[in-house]
Write a structure and sequence with these properties.
The complex is a heterodimer of chains A (about 90) and B (about 475). Helix content of chain A is about 30%, strand content about 10%. By secondary structure, chain A is of the alpha+beta class. Chain A has a domain at about 1-45. Chain A has a two-stranded antiparallel ribbon with strand order 2-3. The mean pLDDT of chain A is about 85. Chain B is built from 15 helices and 18 strands. In chain B, strands 1, 3, 7, 8, 9, 12, 13, 14, 15 and 16 form a ten-stranded mixed β-sheet that branches. A three-stranded antiparallel β-sheet of chain B has the order 6-5-17, with no helix packed on it. Chain B has helices spanning about 55-65, 165-180, 220-240, 285-290, 300-310, 315-320, 325-335, 340-360, 370-380, 385-400, 405-410, 420-430, 435-440, 445-460, 465-475; strands at about 5-15, 50, 70, 75, 75-80, 90-95, 100, 105-110, 115-125, 130, 140-145, 150-155, 190-200, 210-215, 245-250, 255-260, 270-275, 280. Chain B folds into three domains: about 5-285, no CATH class; about 300-410, no CATH class; about 420-475, Orthogonal Bundle (Arc Repressor Mutant, subunit A), CATH 1.10.10. In chain B, helix 9 (about 370-380) packs antiparallel against helix 10 (about 385-400). The chains are: A alpha+beta (about 90), B alpha+beta (about 475). The interface of A and B includes residues 13, 15, 60 and 93 of A.
């Protein structure tokens, strides 16, 4: 059974800040979730085609026509920092 | 010790649709930042992606062109990672079930050596936005106009064995996607980006550890980046070290590759099928419809030009270098009654190309369009003007909107073909230069050219050169 979730790695991948005091509790919860997957993995699925989607339907297609308008002034009202039309974020590359 | 280079390429071709892959926002290049990013592109809660039919048709077109099998069923998957220019926190891509499987690209190397490169797959995905790192103190600027732009990622097998083969493959693919009308091929604007997986091994040995060079945006840089990387890897191994699997960037200014991230920091993308998107089903009817709309492909066009217009391999290659130049040429030939396809070829490859290059223009931007060019070529073919005068007419056409006929008429450039008139002028010239005539008669054959020059001068270049030669010969023999 998978009971060795690396909480630090998961936190890094998920870009989550998990305090040292929380690691144990979060680890337990995650392991409980993984336990459910272990139960699922125990079922014999030989010869069953993986299901990409629960609905037995196919992708609908949209015609290639521009229907969207410029909404940047509207949506940028909720951005913490904007300059020259760009969203500003903490520097990604030093 | 002989080293063998092993190269596989992953090419991201931006599909030339009007809208994004999953939204109805425009993909036009060069818009002001964030003016073409809608709620779907921004990854706002509650929105749903809807697949663009144009994208699917283009993927089918590519699949048919490379002889691959177009997947009856393909599935979109989420590739999870965090980066500020990826608003949703995942990129919608295809993973286990791509839309195009297999296929081949045939390349030709220097010396006429032919080779076939197999494709592994091609899959559809969305592009991320752009991060601008320079202009903001302590911050990066994010432009999401590119977010959601459709890409076809074309993955080759690791079957190329030299930088030259890699460049030949990339160029062939570049030509093909433009012919198919599925990508504008603009490498400066990032419409066609190449990642190269490179490793070295002893001949016959197992594959070595590879390094991946990301986002090379010119064929010259691709060649240099691979050459540098191969040398680097050989040096490491020969010094007793081991190549590290990593992603590297090519720095053109320094002509070197440098590490971007190593395998230790490699992303765990946690792919899974995107629950927002149903499986893409491509029916035989959809494929048949696209088949009916397929343009003639470069190799087929080349062969046809050689047969139909009796052109040399070289001429056919140049004239099929792009669909635009081929269309231009065929319009000229069709309009001139296909009398002498070689003259039209010479004009398109010679004067037109030279002038386009001098002004850094594409053939589609030529001030002299194919029908005006045809008007000029027609006057050469019916002997109204000589090839030399035609060059002067062409120069005037380049900076005006006048037809060749109008210019010939206005400038009085019509070729003199009246034998009597030419003969009279020839006799006039001979009478004018008795000393040269005596020398010529005395055996200085070279002076023939002098007389030709004087006659042409007297006729302002308008006499038919063939007729001048003949009449001059006759008159001098008298």
């Amino acid at each position: 059974m998978s009971d060795h979730i690396d909480v630090h790695k998961v936190a890094r991948l998920g870009a989550l800040a998990i305090g040292a005091d929380e690691v144990g509790a979060v680890g337990q919860k995650l392991n409980a979730i993984v336990g459910l997957f272990d139960d699922l993995a125990a079922i014999n699925t030989d010869g069953i085609e993986p299901m990409a989607h629960p609905l037995d339907q196919v992708q609908r297609l949209r015609v290639d026509v521009v229907i969207e308008k410029d909404i940047h002034q509207y949506v940028q009202q909720i951005a913490p920092r904007v300059e020259a039309g760009l969203y500003l974020v903490p520097k990604v590359i030093e | 010790m002989t080293w063998e280079t092993v190269i596989g390429l992953e090419v991201h071709a931006q599909l030339a649709t009007k809208t994004k892959i999953f939204s109805g926002a425009s993909t036009a290049f060069g818009a002001l930042p964030n003016t073409q990013a809608c709620l779907v592109d921004l990854g706002m809660p509650g929105v749903l992606p809807v697949l663009n039919k144009g994208v699917v048709d283009m993927a089918i077109r590519f699949g048919l062109a490379v002889g691959s099998s177009v997947a009856e069923k393909s599935v979109f998957a989420r590739k999870n990672y965090f980066y500020p220019d990826l608003p949703k926190g995942y990129q919608i891509s295809q993973f286990e079930l791509p839309v195009v499987i297999g296929g081949q690209i045939h390349i030709e190397l220097d010396g006429g050596v032919k080779k076939t490169i197999n494709l592994t797959r091609a899959h559809l995905e969305e592009d991320a936005g752009k991060s601008l790192h320079e202009d903001f103190e302590g911050a990066s600027g994010i432009d999401l106009n590119r977010a959601g732009t459709p890409l076809l990622e074309i993955v080759s097998e690791p079957e190329m064995r030299s930088p030259a083969e890699a460049v030949a493959y990339a160029k062939k693919l570049h030509e093909l996607v433009q012919y198919l009308g599925i990508c504008d091929g603009n490498m400066q604007e990032g419409s066609f980006r190449v990642d190269a997986n490179i490793s070295v091994r002893k001949v016959g040995a197992e594959l070595g550890t590879r390094a991946e060079i990301k986002n090379v945006n010119s064929f010259k840089f691709l060649e240099r980046a691979i050459m540098f990387e191969v040398e680097r890897q050989i040096d490491i191994i020969e010094a007793g070290g081991a190549v590290v699997q990593e992603t590297r960037l090519y720095d053109a200014a320094k002509d070197e590759t440098r590490s971007m991230r190593s395998k230790a920091d490699a992303m765990d993308y946690r792919y899974f099928p995107d629950p927002d998107l149903l499986p893409l089903i491509i029916t035989p009817a959809m494929i048949e419809k696209v088949k009916g709309e397929m343009p003639e492909l470069p190799d087929a066009k080349r062969t046809r030009f050689i047969e139909q217009y009796k052109l040399s391999d070289y001429d056919a290659m140049v004239l099929t270098g792009s669909r635009e130049i081929a269309d231009y040429y065929e319009t000229v030939v069709a309009a001139t009654g296909a009398k002498d396809p070689k003259i039209a070829a010479n004009w398109v490859m010679g004067e037109l190309n030279a002038r386009l290059n001098a002004d850094s223009l594409d053939v589609s931007e030529s001030p002299v369009d194919a029908s005006r060019m045809a008007g000029l070529v027609a006057r050469i073919l019916d002997n109204t003007i000589s090839g030399k005068i035609a060059k002067d007419v062409f120069e005037i056409m380049w900076t005006s909107t006048d037809s060749a006929d109008a210019i010939i008429e206005a400038k009085g450039l019509k070729q003199i073909t009246d034998v009597g008139a030419i003969a009279a002028m020839v006799r006039g010239v001979i009478d004018q230069f008795p000393e040269q005539l005596a020398e010529y008669k005395g055996g200085r054959d070279k002076l023939f050219g002098f007389f030709v020059g004087e006659v042409m001068k007297a006729t302002k270049g308008k006499a038919n050169p063939g007729q001048v030669n003949q009449i001059l010969k006759d008159e001098l023999a008298k």
